[in-house]
Amino acid sequence: MQLLESISTLDPVSTAPRSRARRAEAPRTANEEPIRALPRWARPQTADPGAAIFAAGAGLALFDQILRGADGGADVSSAAKEGGEPVFAGCLRQRLALKAADSCATLARLREDASALRDAEHLSGGGETSPAGRLHRLFRLYASLPARVDAAAPAAELLGLREAIDASALAAAAAAAPDPLMAAARASAAAMKLGPNAADAELFAFVVADLALANRLGWARPVPMLAVAMLQPSLRRGAGGRRPRPTDDNWAESVARAYGLAVVEAHALAVDLARRSQKLLSVAPALRARGARRVIEMLFTDDAVTPAAAASRAGLSDRAARRLFDRLVTLGVVRELSGRETFRIYGL
Questions:
Q1: Taking the CB of residue 292, how many other CB atoms lie within 10 A of it?
Q2: Structural contact between residues 130 and 179, judged by C-beta atoms closer than 8 angstroms
Q3: What CA–CA distance (Å, rounded) separates 55 from 301?
Q4: Is 116 helix (H, G, I), strand (E, B) or coil?
Q5: Which parts of this chain are annotated as the region Disordered (predicted)?
Q6: Are the C-beta atoms of residues 244 and 251 closer than 8 Å to each other?
Q7: Tens-digit pLDDT profile for the chain (348 aa)?
Q8: 245 within 8 A of 203, measured Cβ to Cβ
Q9: Are 142 and 191 in contact (CB under 8 A)?
Q10: For residue 172, what are the contacts with CB-CB under 8 A and spacing of at least 6?
């Protein structure tokens, strides 16, 4: 993160002339053009299959510009780690991973909601977790994988499908497709046929679809999207309102509809995170706590951060970490996400 590197070089001594110099060296945040909201013409409007494919393609093209740092927010984008991605790309992926896990937990009839999943992940210290918590870890893991279908093996292993999956066959199915949406549809349908357990195979199919899409779009890493949209009522078809499944004859059409809906949510989240990132960067030079730079990096790369994790990774005392988060909340640049007075969790 080049921008954060520049933050760390600022002199913390509080004399008046140095303060003026510090302000001069602060990241540029004023007058930056914000990332634009997804235009209405790029949102799903009708049930017509052609219109659904157009909306999915248009939405993904505009979202692609955000991931490549081409849509506004120059300061935010300039701190990217890989591929010109915006500085908040890690947080974006992990927050969508939480939404995907929440959606899949509902599909599996598990009780945990997004708040419970976040608590289980960030307060457990990496120990044993519930079946829904394992779903969350699955999506957190694959959101960090390289965007290649044959890189899905660790995700298959978490689902107990490692022996049943032929990653090269899935990659071949995606490669033979004429476009990114069809690559996602064909690879996920192939993944569904390879898995012996239908419920686990469907979860793996969602993972494979996102990997295939990201690979064809040239993204550095997958973005959890297909599972996020699977509970949308507008995807249901037929008299019984049946939700789409990878074994359906019209799965490719359902995948296009689902990505058209999912990218609306992903784009809106990116707009919000870009605004919050700019605010956090604007106050970063004034943070004098040792380890503040590392804590900011953690906030940019994950959905949530606890004071205990920040203290451990940034070399702070527990009290100093809590005081730093209290100040960030007071400055309005970080939110407390749990709503509790104890065991608090913070994020953009």
A1: 23
A2: no
A3: 29
A4: helix
A5: 1-32
A6: yes
A7: 443 443 333 333 333 334 443 443 344 444 456 888 999 999 998 888 899 999 999 999 999 999 987 654 434 434 445 568 899 999 999 999 999 999 999 998 998 999 999 999 999 877 788 888 889 999 999 898 888 888 888 888 888 777 777 888 888 999 999 999 999 999 999 998 876 677 888 999 999 999 999 999 999 999 999 999 998 998 988 778 889 999 999 999 999 999 999 999 999 999 999 999 999 999 988 888 888 999 999 999 999 999 999 999 999 899 999 999 999 999 999 999 999 989 999 999
A8: no
A9: no
A10: none
How many Å apart are CA 317 and CA 327, to the nearest integer?
A: 15
Tokens 């913070």 identify what position? Answer: 346
Rounded-to-integer distance, Cα 325 and Cα 317, Å: 12
CB atoms within 10 A of CB 315: 12
CA 322, CA 326: separation in Å to the nearest integer?
Answer: 6
Greatest C-alpha distance within the chain: 73
Phi, psi of 174 (to 5 degrees): -70, -40
Helix (H, G, I), strand (E, B) or coil at 346: strand
Spatial contact of 292 and 284, defined as CB atoms under 8 Å apart: yes
What backbone phi and psi angles, to 5 degrees, belong to 148?
Answer: -130, 135
- From the list 263, 311, 272, 256, the residue with the least C-alpha distance to 289 is 311
Gap between the Cα atoms of 122 and 309, Å rounded: 8
- Where helices occur in 159-315 by DSSP H, the ranges are 167-175, 180-194, 198-217, 226-229, 251-283, 292-301, 307-314
Integer angstrom CA distances of residue 125 from 23, 65, 189, 315, 327: 38, 36, 36, 17, 25
Q: What pTM does this model have?
A: 0.85
Q: Which helix (H) or strand (E) holds 304?
A: none
Which ranges constitute the DSSP H helices of the chain? 2-8, 16-25, 49-67, 74-78, 89-107, 114-123, 131-142, 153-158, 167-175, 180-194, 198-217, 226-229, 251-283, 292-301, 307-314, 318-330
Please report where in the chains the tokens 């996102």 appear, as a residue: 210
